[in-house]
């Protein structure tokens, strides 16, 4: 292994340990509260939210298939990850500016931040997949991206389960349904909302909304970029080579 690959493998091992931690008392308490709050919502509200997020995500996935770059075939890990970091920086800055604008615009623009930020995140994942040499035109590769997304924005309890699927993706992908509609969209949307609700709620407050929106979006894109990089390091077998 090159010195860069050795360093990346070390970072990957530390990340793997983080993904497999036992949920702390605070994690368990927060999850209990989130479950209780979700149970207070009527079933028709859950179905409406699930359908809305499903449509938004599928729309972005469809559009990104035709606007993303072709998979990078021949490149070292270092070259790939230099390009990935540039993309993360670009999309992070875009999301930061978007959060500041929508946060400064009050309630209505603050609500518009949700689909805009979702689109930025998913487009970044398509770019990262291509830079690591994977073609997201493939249905199972798009599901992989959704699992990476879910891993980045889930509670520790759910993170453990999603990580297990990603760590053994080649075997897990054989069990995937052929119909994309069979993806567990309800769990996807609940985990995502639970994760970002506290981070983004203050964005709707006048005066401080712009600052909160900018900082929250910056951190969320950093979190997604770090998760995606380590997922693809794992996918490329870097952990087994270390």
UniProtKB/TrEMBL annotation:
InterPro entries xrefs: EcsC (IPR024787)
One Pfam family named in its UniProt record: EcsC
Superkingdom of origin: Bacteria
Protein's recorded name: EcsC family protein
Organism, as annotated: Hymenobacter nitidus
């Amino acid at each position: 292994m090159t010195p860069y690959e050795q360093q990346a493998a070390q970072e990957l091992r530390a990340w793997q340990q983080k993904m497999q931690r036992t949920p702390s008392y605070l994690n368990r308490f927060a999850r209990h509260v989130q479950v209780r709050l979700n149970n207070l919502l009527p079933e028709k509200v859950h179905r409406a939210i699930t359908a809305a997020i499903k449509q938004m995500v599928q729309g972005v996935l469809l559009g990104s298939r035709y606007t993303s770059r072709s998979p990078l075939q021949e490149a070292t890990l270092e070259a790939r990850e230099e390009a990935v970091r540039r993309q993360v920086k670009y999309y992070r800055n875009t999301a930061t500016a978007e959060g500041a604008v929508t946060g400064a615009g009050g309630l209505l623009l603050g609500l518009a931040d949700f689909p805009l930020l979702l689109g930025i995140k998913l487009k970044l994942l398509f770019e990262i997949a291509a830079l690591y040499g994977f073609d997201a035109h493939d249905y199972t590769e798009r599901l992989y991206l959704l699992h990476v997304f879910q891993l980045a924005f889930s509670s520790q309890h759910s993170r453990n389960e999603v990580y297990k699927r990603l760590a053994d993706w080649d075997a897990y992908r054989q069990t995937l349904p052929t119909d994309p509609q069979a993806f567990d969209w309800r769990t996807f949307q609940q985990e995502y909302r639970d994760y970002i609700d506290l981070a983004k709620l203050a964005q709707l407050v006048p005066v401080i909304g712009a600052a909160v929106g900018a900082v929250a979006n910056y951190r969320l894109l950093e979190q997604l970029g770090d998760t995606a990089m380590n997922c693809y390091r794992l996918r490329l077998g870097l952990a087994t080579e270390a």
